[in-house]
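Dear support,

Our group has been running a series of protein-ligand predictions, and this particular one with protoporphyrin IX containing FE is the one our PI (initials K.S.) wants archived with full inputs and outputs. We had some confusion internally about which version of the output was final, so please treat the block below as the authoritative record. The input we submitted was:
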Amino acid sequence: MIVQSGVTCGRDLSFTRRYKRSQSSQHLRRLLNQNVGVDDIITMFDHLIQSSSSVSLLGTLLVLLLVYFISSSSFSSNADGKQPPGPKPLPVLGNLLQVYIVSAYHLVLSGFLLFMHLFTIYFGPKKVVVLAGYKTVKEALVDKADVFGERDPMKIVESSKGHGVLWSNGDSWKEMRRFTLTNLRDYGMGKKACEDKIIEECQHLIEVFKTFKAFDTTQPMNYAVSNIICSLVYGSRFEYDDPEFTSMVDRTNRNIQLLGSPSIQMYNLFPWMGRWIADRRESEEYTKLNNKQNMKLFSQLKETLNPQMCRGFVDAFMVRKQTLEESGVTNSHFSNENLLITVRNLFNAGTDTTATTLRWALLLMTKYPKIQDQVQEEISRVIGTRQVQVEDRRNLPFTDAVIHETQRLANIVPMALPHKTSEDVTFQGHFIKKGTTVYPLLTSVLYDETEWEKPHSFHPAHFLDKDGKFVKQDAFMPFSAGRRICLGESLARMELFLFFTTLLQHFCFTPPPGVKEEDLDLTPRVGLTLNPSHHKLCAIPRL
Ligand code: HEM
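Confirmed final output from the archive:
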């Protein structure tokens, strides 16, 4: 997770400046190739100092330290042909110092990633194998799906106790994932019934947007997106001024930020530090409150349960549990714990991710008004003023490309979630032991320089052919791949398309008065997912 902050720290600059920096990383790549010479170091520093006015003395010192670490430790520690190579770890700290240096200076990390496709790094005492680049990530997650498809739960999520879908493994995970997928599909995921729910929610969101002048999009977007998962899970949506609903969504949002905080990362590595970590207590308090709220909702649903007419996932789960109990099955996975944790997983994973992506999309449209104009021209020409439908997607190639490019560049889950190996494996000539934590760096796939023409720019043409038709790209992997691929992908894709297109049809997005487009900051706020930093937008009605 600490690498994650490293990957993203660098987005404090505009994409143009980042591109310049990536050129500097070529120098670093050469350094990492072990040909460390004084001339190289001097050249790199010259380049760094010229290419970025924000290079501070601290940054320079950090780079020097990193060069020292890399050249003095063995990046070729696999001379014995065993585990994937990596910098030599220090006792207790492992490679934390190097990684923190990397975090503080993203340029170094991009150099690191460009060079290595498979490496070992020690987060304190924890050994992690990192997969980087499209080919390596695909080879592991897809071609060797069974070996790389286990989850490695972090300490902070231990209250899940192996239940639910996100953090579980084995038979319980298999059963919960299968049941959840089947039932969400039954309640409309990826189908017409769900399309109608999203369209209805779009209307509520439009009304809210109309009431604001310059506003922060976080809450309305979270409430609208959360209502879709609520409709599927509980069987009904909530009003945006219902305090029980809004507090649950707000707590979830804050919790996702906390889970990515440096202090909780330290707690995951050194659990004995827990008692001094305030963020951990705050996070656990939110989890408790959301559990309580869910228990209340479950008991209301149970009182009115009709097995002939299930309203959503919770009803279906309770009916299955009852049926199994009545037929004398005592060892099933359909327990109260699995119900609670699975619902919590769906609520958490189904709200923040999609809402964050939509917020990035609106921010990018505001920053790049010419692209916004092109989207609106296409919507006006193809749809006019009628309601957008899912089947319109194939006639809106530019809009579709913009949505895909937003997901690629926003890169909201940069390292997927931690995986682990289910057995000993020899991978790309290196030995990886059963139970080793594996981080598939989705960033390195979504920004892979060998797959994308302009990896660091917002460039919708990545998804268009020369005739302007939409083209799929294999390295488009924001939902990850293989056994643990996002369970909600079809729902998320439908939501992104309908919300984005309907909002762009109804509004023109501009910066608040006094702010220029170029001032809009694309630095992400680091959490378990990457959110846009705090900003406000204006939504000017078009229809
Ligand atoms: C733009 C929106 C979304 C993105 C980018 C996204 C991305 C991801 C990623 C990267 C993972 C981890 C995969 C891995 O570990 O390899 C994941 C897992 C998961 N997602 Fe999503 N997701 C999105 C929306 C949703 C929605 C709407 C739902 C709810 C239905 C959902 C439910 C889940 C679940 C339950 C998992 C755990 C799967 C497992 O471990 O078996 N996600 N998602």
